[in-house]
Amino acid sequence: NAGVTQTPKFQVLKTGQSMTLQCAQDMNHEYMSWYRQDPGMGLRLIHYSVGAGITDQGEVPNGYNVSRSTTEDFPLRLLSAAPSQTSVYFCASSYSPGQGAGTEAFFGQGTRLTVV
Amino acid sequence: GNSVTQMEGPVTLSEEAFLTINCTYTATGYPSLFWYVQYPGEGLQLLLKATKADDKGSNKGFEATYRKETTSFHLEKGSVQVSDSAVYFCALRNTDKLIFGTGTRLQVFP
Measured between beta carbons, which residues in chain B are less than 8 angstroms from residue A105? Predict the structure, then answer.
Protein backbone atom coordinates (compact mmCIF):
# COMPACT_ATOMS: atom_id res chain seq x y z
CA ASN A 1 0.00 0.00 0.00
CA ALA A 2 1.85 3.09 -1.26
CA GLY A 3 -0.41 5.71 0.39
CA VAL A 4 0.12 9.21 -1.05
CA THR A 5 2.90 9.54 -3.61
CA GLN A 6 4.26 12.91 -4.71
CA THR A 7 6.73 13.59 -7.48
CA PRO A 8 9.23 15.11 -7.87
CA LYS A 9 10.84 15.51 -4.43
CA PHE A 10 12.96 18.48 -5.50
CA GLN A 11 12.65 20.96 -8.36
CA VAL A 12 14.34 24.16 -9.41
CA LEU A 13 12.52 26.39 -11.90
CA LYS A 14 13.34 29.63 -13.60
CA THR A 15 10.86 32.49 -13.32
CA GLY A 16 8.17 32.10 -15.94
CA GLN A 17 8.59 28.37 -16.45
CA SER A 18 5.67 26.01 -15.99
CA MET A 19 5.52 22.64 -14.31
CA THR A 20 3.17 20.09 -12.80
CA LEU A 21 3.52 18.54 -9.38
CA GLN A 22 2.09 15.04 -9.36
CA CYS A 23 0.07 13.46 -6.57
CA ALA A 24 -1.46 9.99 -6.52
CA GLN A 25 -3.18 7.98 -3.81
CA ASP A 26 -4.29 4.36 -3.74
CA MET A 27 -6.65 4.44 -0.75
CA ASN A 28 -9.87 5.28 -2.64
CA HIS A 29 -10.07 8.64 -0.88
CA GLU A 30 -12.57 11.10 -2.27
CA TYR A 31 -10.95 14.16 -0.71
CA MET A 32 -7.57 15.41 -1.93
CA SER A 33 -5.82 18.69 -1.31
CA TRP A 34 -2.64 20.69 -1.88
CA TYR A 35 -0.87 22.76 0.76
CA ARG A 36 2.19 24.93 0.76
CA GLN A 37 4.42 25.18 3.80
CA ASP A 38 6.40 28.32 4.46
CA PRO A 39 8.43 29.25 7.57
CA GLY A 40 6.21 30.77 10.25
CA MET A 41 3.07 30.30 8.14
CA GLY A 42 2.17 26.71 8.83
CA LEU A 43 0.34 24.88 6.07
CA ARG A 44 -1.89 26.93 3.81
CA LEU A 45 -4.52 25.31 1.62
CA ILE A 46 -4.09 25.98 -2.11
CA HIS A 47 -6.81 23.89 -3.78
CA TYR A 48 -8.88 20.90 -2.83
CA SER A 49 -11.20 18.36 -4.38
CA VAL A 50 -14.10 16.40 -2.92
CA GLY A 51 -14.24 13.93 -5.79
CA ALA A 52 -13.46 13.33 -9.44
CA GLY A 53 -14.48 16.29 -11.56
CA ILE A 54 -14.88 18.64 -8.58
CA THR A 55 -12.29 21.16 -7.42
CA ASP A 56 -12.39 24.31 -5.33
CA GLN A 57 -10.08 27.06 -4.16
CA GLY A 58 -8.45 27.17 -0.78
CA GLU A 59 -6.76 30.02 1.04
CA VAL A 60 -3.98 30.80 -1.47
CA PRO A 61 -5.08 29.65 -4.98
CA ASN A 62 -3.56 32.40 -7.15
CA GLY A 63 -0.92 31.15 -9.58
CA TYR A 64 -1.99 27.51 -9.33
CA ASN A 65 -4.38 25.30 -11.28
CA VAL A 66 -5.71 21.85 -10.48
CA SER A 67 -7.88 19.20 -12.08
CA ARG A 68 -9.30 15.91 -10.86
CA SER A 69 -10.05 13.56 -13.74
CA THR A 70 -9.71 10.39 -11.65
CA THR A 71 -10.16 9.52 -7.98
CA GLU A 72 -6.47 8.59 -7.69
CA ASP A 73 -4.71 11.63 -9.17
CA PHE A 74 -4.69 15.32 -8.28
CA PRO A 75 -1.94 17.25 -10.13
CA LEU A 76 -1.01 20.83 -9.25
CA ARG A 77 0.05 23.10 -12.13
CA LEU A 78 2.16 26.22 -11.97
CA LEU A 79 1.58 28.03 -15.25
CA SER A 80 4.22 30.75 -14.85
CA ALA A 81 6.45 30.25 -11.82
CA ALA A 82 7.36 33.20 -9.61
CA PRO A 83 9.94 33.45 -6.78
CA SER A 84 7.05 33.86 -4.33
CA GLN A 85 6.09 30.26 -5.13
CA THR A 86 9.31 28.94 -3.63
CA SER A 87 8.01 26.64 -0.94
CA VAL A 88 7.49 23.07 0.16
CA TYR A 89 4.31 21.58 -1.29
CA PHE A 90 2.34 18.77 0.29
CA CYS A 91 -0.46 16.72 -1.14
CA ALA A 92 -2.93 15.09 1.23
CA SER A 93 -5.89 12.75 0.90
CA SER A 94 -8.63 11.50 3.18
CA TYR A 95 -12.05 9.99 3.23
CA SER A 96 -14.81 12.53 2.97
CA PRO A 97 -17.21 12.62 5.93
CA GLY A 98 -19.81 11.06 3.66
CA GLN A 99 -17.61 7.99 3.11
CA GLY A 100 -18.24 7.03 6.73
CA ALA A 101 -14.61 6.44 7.72
CA GLY A 102 -12.07 8.32 9.83
CA THR A 103 -11.46 11.81 8.55
CA GLU A 104 -7.75 12.19 9.21
CA ALA A 105 -5.57 13.15 6.25
CA PHE A 106 -2.62 11.21 4.89
CA PHE A 107 0.27 13.24 3.51
CA GLY A 108 2.84 12.75 0.81
CA GLN A 109 6.53 13.33 1.47
CA GLY A 110 6.50 16.78 -0.06
CA THR A 111 8.06 18.60 -3.03
CA ARG A 112 10.67 21.25 -2.33
CA LEU A 113 10.35 23.84 -5.10
CA THR A 114 12.77 26.69 -5.69
CA VAL A 115 12.01 29.39 -8.25
CA VAL A 116 15.00 31.51 -9.27
CA GLY B 1 -14.59 31.30 9.82
CA ASN B 2 -12.58 28.35 11.05
CA SER B 3 -9.12 28.90 12.50
CA VAL B 4 -6.50 27.33 14.76
CA THR B 5 -4.11 29.17 17.05
CA GLN B 6 -1.01 27.49 18.46
CA MET B 7 1.62 28.70 20.86
CA GLU B 8 4.73 29.94 19.11
CA GLY B 9 7.95 28.03 19.42
CA PRO B 10 10.47 26.86 19.67
CA VAL B 11 9.79 24.96 22.84
CA THR B 12 13.08 23.81 24.33
CA LEU B 13 13.07 21.08 26.99
CA SER B 14 15.43 18.68 28.67
CA GLU B 15 14.81 14.96 28.30
CA GLU B 16 12.13 13.64 30.70
CA ALA B 17 10.54 17.08 31.15
CA PHE B 18 6.78 17.62 30.94
CA LEU B 19 5.44 19.02 27.68
CA THR B 20 2.42 21.19 26.97
CA ILE B 21 1.72 22.77 23.60
CA ASN B 22 -1.36 24.97 23.63
CA CYS B 23 -3.94 24.94 20.86
CA THR B 24 -7.22 26.82 20.65
CA TYR B 25 -9.68 26.91 17.81
CA THR B 26 -12.56 28.85 16.33
CA ALA B 27 -15.17 26.92 14.42
CA THR B 28 -18.87 26.66 13.71
CA GLY B 29 -20.55 23.39 14.51
CA TYR B 30 -18.62 20.42 15.87
CA PRO B 31 -15.24 19.97 14.21
CA SER B 32 -12.88 17.03 14.56
CA LEU B 33 -9.51 17.97 16.07
CA PHE B 34 -6.08 16.58 15.27
CA TRP B 35 -2.44 16.78 16.20
CA TYR B 36 0.07 16.05 13.44
CA VAL B 37 3.84 15.69 13.79
CA GLN B 38 6.48 16.48 11.19
CA TYR B 39 9.98 15.08 11.60
CA PRO B 40 12.82 16.79 9.70
CA GLY B 41 12.61 16.30 5.94
CA GLU B 42 9.37 14.34 6.13
CA GLY B 43 5.68 14.84 5.54
CA LEU B 44 3.08 15.16 8.28
CA GLN B 45 1.92 12.14 10.25
CA LEU B 46 -1.20 11.91 12.35
CA LEU B 47 -0.28 11.79 16.04
CA LEU B 48 -3.75 11.68 17.60
CA LYS B 49 -7.30 12.85 17.09
CA ALA B 50 -10.62 13.52 18.84
CA THR B 51 -13.96 13.74 17.13
CA LYS B 52 -16.31 15.04 19.83
CA ALA B 53 -16.33 17.04 23.04
CA ASP B 54 -14.55 15.44 26.04
CA ASP B 55 -12.87 12.82 23.84
CA LYS B 56 -9.23 12.19 24.72
CA GLY B 57 -6.86 11.25 21.92
CA SER B 58 -3.65 9.47 22.83
CA ASN B 59 -0.65 7.93 21.08
CA LYS B 60 3.04 7.32 21.90
CA GLY B 61 2.61 8.89 25.36
CA PHE B 62 1.03 12.07 23.97
CA GLU B 63 -2.49 13.07 25.00
CA ALA B 64 -4.97 15.82 24.14
CA THR B 65 -8.54 16.37 25.34
CA TYR B 66 -11.25 18.05 23.23
CA ARG B 67 -12.54 20.86 25.45
CA LYS B 68 -15.55 22.51 23.86
CA GLU B 69 -16.13 24.93 26.75
CA THR B 70 -12.66 26.45 26.31
CA THR B 71 -12.34 25.62 22.56
CA SER B 72 -8.99 24.01 23.26
CA PHE B 73 -7.05 20.86 22.37
CA HIS B 74 -3.74 21.15 24.23
CA LEU B 75 -1.06 18.53 23.59
CA GLU B 76 0.69 17.00 26.62
CA LYS B 77 3.35 14.40 27.33
CA GLY B 78 4.62 13.49 30.76
CA SER B 79 8.24 12.74 29.84
CA VAL B 80 9.69 13.82 26.51
CA GLN B 81 12.55 12.12 24.71
CA VAL B 82 15.15 13.45 22.30
CA SER B 83 13.35 11.52 19.55
CA ASP B 84 10.24 13.68 20.11
CA SER B 85 12.05 16.66 18.59
CA ALA B 86 9.86 17.71 15.66
CA VAL B 87 7.28 20.28 14.56
CA TYR B 88 3.77 19.74 15.92
CA PHE B 89 0.66 21.01 14.15
CA CYS B 90 -2.81 21.36 15.61
CA ALA B 91 -5.62 21.09 13.05
CA LEU B 92 -9.37 21.00 12.77
CA ARG B 93 -11.72 19.60 10.19
CA ASN B 94 -15.16 21.03 9.71
CA THR B 95 -17.02 19.47 6.77
CA ASP B 96 -14.39 19.13 4.03
CA LYS B 97 -11.49 21.49 4.74
CA LEU B 98 -8.61 20.62 7.06
CA ILE B 99 -7.28 23.80 8.68
CA PHE B 100 -3.86 23.94 10.36
CA GLY B 101 -2.19 26.08 12.96
CA THR B 102 1.24 27.55 12.26
CA GLY B 103 3.10 24.72 14.01
CA THR B 104 5.26 24.56 17.12
CA ARG B 105 8.85 23.36 16.97
CA LEU B 106 9.90 21.17 19.91
CA GLN B 107 13.58 20.70 20.69
CA VAL B 108 14.52 18.16 23.35
CA PHE B 109 18.08 18.03 24.63
CA PRO B 110 19.71 15.14 26.51
Answer: 44, 46, 93, 98
